[in-house]
Amino acid sequence: MAGQLIVSVSGARDRTLADVSDFCAELDARRVPVSFLVAPRLGGGYRLLDDARTAEWLRTRRDRGDAIVLHGYDEAATKRRRPEFAILPAHEANLRVMAADRVLEQAGLRTRLFAAPGWSASTGTIAVLPRNGFRLLASVDGITDLARQSKVRARVLGIGGGFLTEPWWCRMLVLSAERIARRGGIVRIAITARQLQRPGPRQAMLDAIDLALLHRTTPTVYRWQPDQPVLIDAA
């Protein structure tokens, strides 16, 4: 049985847009859509609302079939050992989710999909997502339909963004992706835009994608459909 392939990229911004665009061109040639993990604020004082070019590029990509996934609120609040939403109580998580949702709406990128920085969301965060209109949560170990309270188990394989970036890790990612695809599972691979500037991680992602496609996985994106539970379509 063929599985699914979900590729996500986080951290697209003014400084990385050229690398992200080049990578997406490679995926376009393979007919593989991308899920973009977008945060209103990134390190170095970056603000999405001040970056009209990236916002417009993301809107264009979404219109072509890619997905936008809210990826936290402020990267500066993300610690090495404690990602932004990993331990937040419900009240504070609610304030951050509301603020982030408002910014994405202003940027024309509003989404009902959420993936916390580091792919780690506290129980308080998970509790407030549905009341803010979110329907799907992508976490490190699976994809949860928040409306139906059902979850598909599928672990993220990543480079950067809380995952290692060393050559041995990149090789392991490729082998793991191939093994999951061969077994008909859901191949979830993720990379930060910053890592796409490095030939090794970038090539590892392309190798993992090519191997997954070789095993006839179906390329898709994170999505929620009211008439189709995540248990049937995990993207």
Descriptive overview:
- The chain has 235 residues and is an alpha/beta fold.
- The chain has a domain of 153 residues: TIM Barrel, CATH 3.20.20.
- It has 6 helices and 12 strands.
- The strands form 3 sheets. Strands 1, 2, 5, 10, 11 and 12 form a 6-stranded parallel sheet that branches. Strands 6-7-8-9 form a 4-stranded mixed sheet, with no helix packed on it. The chain has a two-stranded antiparallel ribbon with strand order 3-4.
- The chain starts with a strand and ends in a 15-residue tail after the last strand.
Topology:
Blueprint: E1 4-10, H1 17-29, E2 35-38, E3 41-42, E4 46-47, H2 52-63, E5 67-70, H3 90-106, E6 113-114, H4 123-128, E7 136-139, E8 142-145, E9 150-153, E10 156-159, H5 167-182, E11 186-192, H6 199-214, E12 218-220
Parallel strand pairs: 1-2, 1-11, 1-12, 2-5, 6-7, 10-11
Antiparallel strand pairs: 3-4, 7-8, 8-9
Helix pairs in contact: 5-6
Order of helices and strands: EHEEEHEHEHEEEEHEHE
Uncertain ranges: 231-235
Q: Roughly how many Å apart are the termini? A: 17 Å
Tally the helices: 6
Q: What is the CATH T-level topology of the domain at 4-156?
A: TIM Barrel
Number of E strands: 12
CATH architecture of the domain at 4-156: Alpha-Beta Barrel
Helix content range: 25-40%
CATH first level of the domain at 4-156: Alpha Beta
CATH superfamily of the domain at 4-156: Glycoside hydrolase/deacetylase
How much of the sequence lies in strands comes to 15-25%
Rounded radius of gyration (Å) = 16 Å
Class by SSE composition: alpha/beta
| Mean pLDDT metric | 94
The major sheet is characterized as: 6 strands, parallel
So what's the overall shape? globular
